[in-house]
């Protein structure tokens, strides 16, 4: 007889697979509908001529989650919130901090868009790239310690940290300048902050990551950037996201996920726009 924990795990996995299958079906139907043109019966020899295969990236994701014993870190409600944004914006530029069991999911939800992952664990990066070669992954490093959080939050209140611009030219000690150039040179439509490690008083923490993401969004050439911060029940994620991504830009909180919609400060009429309105 299966234990209650085994039964609940199986039920959760079935829910995730069902959700993912419906998502794939939706993506296929949407792409077919958007490109559909009336076809005369005489213009095709058989039904097969108007059938489309499942895109390889989606097929790989289905196989992965159907045969894996693990489930994504975020729950159904949290994933669904990001899905609603990607439904409107994909294909788009999607930047994800962290590699995890949900990486294939994010890449699939942004089908035909560009999804980039940043990960600081070198061994984990190599393993994931070997198992999932289709993912665009870059290894990065962080120089901070989560124990510096209070000190960095204090420094972040200085005037030099309230200047919006390219993080590489910022004088703020929280700005990260050693990311791959693609991070700074791409206009990101959606950003997910779910790394680096910052729990149980260990790891680099997400202090500088959150600040740098705020600069990337506000320094965007035009338009808005949807930013998601996960694990907001923790002190650093909660305080730093509210301070540097701004309370005024919060649109919703679902579970442990906080959603910000940040406009470009370069296109706002006034040149005296405050760092946070």
UniProtKB/TrEMBL annotation:
InterPro entries: IRX15/GXM/AGM. Its main location: Golgi. GO terms for biological process: xylan biosynthetic process. One of its GO terms (cellular component) is Golgi membrane. It comes from the Eukaryota. It is found in: Golgi apparatus membrane. Keywords: Membrane, Transmembrane, Transmembrane helix. It is a single-pass membrane protein. This is Polysaccharide biosynthesis domain-containing protein.
